[in-house]
Amino acid sequence: MRHLPATLLLLLSSCLQATNASTSKSFLSESLVKKNQVQSVLEHEPAKAPSCHEPPTGPIETTLCDYETVESLNDDLFSNLSDLVKTPFFKYFRVDLYRECPFWHENGLCMNRECSITTVDESEIPEKWRAAALSEVEMPSEDQRKTMPGCYYRDCDFCYLDDMTEGDYVDLSRNPERFTGYIGPSAHRVWNAIYQENCFGIPEINSPTGKTRTHDSFTDPLPQDELESGGGQCLEKKVYYKIISGLHASITTHICAEYFNQTTGEWGPNLDCFANRVAAHPERLQYIYFNTVLLLRAVSRIGPYLSEYDYCSSGTHEEDLETLTKLGKVIDIAQTVGKFDESVLFQGEDADILKDEFKAHFRNVTRIMDCVGCDKCRLWGKVQTTGVATALKILFELDEAALDPKSNLNLLSRSEVVALVTTLYRFSESLHAVNDFRRIWAETNSADASRLIEEVEKATTPSRVCPSHLSVGLT
Ligand SMILES: Cc1cc2nc3c(=O)[nH]c(=O)nc-3n(C[C@H](O)[C@H](O)[C@H](O)COP(=O)(O)OP(=O)(O)OC[C@H]3O[C@@H](n4cnc5c(N)ncnc54)[C@H](O)[C@@H]3O)c2cc1C
Ligand SMILES: *[C@@H]1O[C@H](CO)[C@@H](O)[C@H](O)[C@H]1NC(C)=O
Ligand SMILES: *[C@@H]1O[C@H](CO)[C@@H](O)[C@H](O)[C@H]1NC(C)=O
Ligand SMILES: *[C@@H]1O[C@H](CO)[C@@H](O)[C@H](O)[C@H]1NC(C)=O
Fold first, then answer.
1. CA-CA distances (angstroms) from residue 304 to 313, 402, 404, 408?
2. DSSP string for residues in 20-68
3. How confident is the model at residue 218, as a pLDDT?
4. 178: Cβ–Cβ under 8 A, 6 or more apart, which residues?
5. E-state strands within 254-345
6. Distance CA 306, CA 321 (A)
7. Ligand 3 test: best mutation among 111, 158, 195, 197, most atoms within 8 Å of CB?
8. Angle at the Cα of 396 (from 406 to 379), degrees rounded to 5?
9. Ligand 4, atom 12, residue with closest C-alpha
10. Per-residue b/e over 385-402, b at no fewer than 16 CB within 10 Å?
């Protein structure tokens, strides 16, 4: 057997049924954390340096090694990306925010930003604190428009890009992704639809017990054992689930990190929110790492191409140089961390069928974004699903020859480049925010800490899964 690279083993790990996981108590180890989840996440000390420099010896160590490398480099990655996304080329994203939801307008579920249910009774609070105001997207002024880079449209394999003729440039730096008050059935319906896309491939609904299961609620838990053993699913489906669940967890982390208290009008991190929705499910945080490594691998693979990309349209030459320098640092980091062998996916007998389905379903996820009932959430939903779609395209669609910047200069559209880098930034920021929560936790007095733990234990809702997790997939 040829040597399996680090992150592949991380991909495979849930199938391999790791046996020697007990050596590490970190929540990053392969076995699911079943006790004191919140503490294990919040008391975890991020690695300062990758602990393994030698070729790793087994799945557990390898996985840890990978995650730790991300941890040890995330501060550098985050600071460089923070600068990069402020440059003109990267801060403008062209997007059509006003497409109709193609799937469920028929039953009158409203799509506009006014109709989400909020956390508080809004009649009592100032207008600017209401969900409608928090969800609004600020459009650039005429002056700002003049400095915008040009853009061209090209087909994207894993997503639908908003057409060039429609849509508007949005300055992402002026519309931070954070709490908007968008909650309730509309939001759940969208998440539900996204997880449903996980139900692809081979026999779906039949569980091993022969019972038919329906998939219509969040209350359908995935038995922990199934999650751990992978439930006999094929690798690709598990990857799909990790991507979606990790994206969801990352969005949640941003909401909790920049939470708005609609009663007091104050912005700030909300530890309860993070503990309940992410830390209580350590695997969700693992999937944030997973997505980070996936995106880093894509950036690493496309590195030479990105270095040759035309950032000229961004204005002056000095600016271009600055953009390139910052990008160069990000690519360097990606080349250190983004070790991942994508060639192992989509290899089996049904590989082509599976890949087509994977693609079709991920594309559909990008379509489902048009059903998000909050403008700002829709904007960031589109950016991040396009970013992940671009990474998937880079990893699974393009061979080395295609990546050659000399022969294939128009490989990626500007939207794809912006989305890829910005999405990496979002995940890196999530990892950064988790460290902030760790600090807040460390400063929490023990009475408040036990109250929080008690509350979390009472409130925890199961992870969303597709019933096909219980079916017999490809082998
Ligand atoms: C594309 C999109 C973008 C959004 N952007 C924003 C935003 O920018 N700002 C904002 O304030 N709100 C945003 N929202 C809404 C936000 O994601 C939540 O839906 C909302 O805060 C309500 O949260 P909740 O606690 O009900 O759980 P939700 O996050 O809605 O999750 C629903 C259920 O899914 C399961 N679940 C939760 N997380 C995971 C996971 N990681 N893996 C597997 N299962 C999980 C749980 O059973 C949970 O009860 C967005 C929603 C969507 C669909
Ligand atoms: C960027 O990354 C480099 C290492 O590649 C690091 O030395 C530097 O501090 C990082 N941050 C900034 C803002 O450049
Ligand atoms: C796309 O998603 C919608 C909403 O969940 C669903 O109704 C539709 O069948 C999906 N289409 C494909 C091709 O997966
Ligand atoms: C908002 O702040 C008030 C006053 O400090 C507090 O009682 C309330 O719990 C906070 N709400 C949320 C959702 O954090």
1. 19, 12, 8, 12
2. -GGG--STTSSSPP-SSHHHHHHT----SS-S--SPP-SHHHHHHHHHH
3. 33
4. 254, 255, 257, 258, 259, 260, 267
5. 259-261, 266-268
6. 13
7. 197
8. 90
9. 261
10. bbbbbbbbbbbbebeeee
Q: Using alpha carbons only, what angle is made at residue 234 by residues 364 and 463, rounded to the nearest 5 degrees? A: 65
The Å distance, Cα 416 to ligand 1 centre, comes to 24
Q: What is the pLDDT of residue 340?
A: 66
> If you count them, how many residues does the chain have?
475
Of 101, 464, 154, whose CA–CA distance to 283 is shortest? 464
Residue whose Cα lies nearest atom 3 of ligand 2: it is: 76
455-472 pLDDT, tens digit each: 998 887 777 665 444 333
Q: What is the token pair recorded at 187?
A: 């939001």
Domain boundaries, the chain: 67-101+136-471
* Cα angle value 287/290/291 (rounded, 5°): 95
Tokens found for residue 92 = 């403008």
| Residues in CB range of 174: below 8 A, 6 or more apart | 138
> Residue range 356-363: average pLDDT?
87
By annotation, the residues acting in catalysis are 374, 377
Distance CA 393, CA 380 (A): 20
Cα distances from 80 to residues 69, 250, 302, 322, 337, in angstroms, run: 17, 19, 18, 11, 15
Q: Among all ligands shown, which has an atom nearest to the Cα of 329?
A: 2
How many C-beta neighbours within 10 Å does residue 275 have? 25
Q: 80 CA distance to ligand 2 centroid (A)?
A: 6
pLDDT digits (tens, 9 = 90+) for 165-205: 467 788 899 899 999 988 888 888 899 999 887 765 433 33
- What average pLDDT is seen over the chain? 75
Give per-residue pLDDT as tens, 405-426. Answer: 777 777 888 889 999 999 999 9
Q: How far is the CA of 329 from the centre of ligand 2 (A)?
A: 7
- Give the binding-site residues of ligand 2, using a 6 Å CB cut-off: 76, 79-80, 83, 329, 332-333
Residue tagged 């040759």 (tokens): 308
Whose atoms come closest to the Cα of 256: which ligand?
1
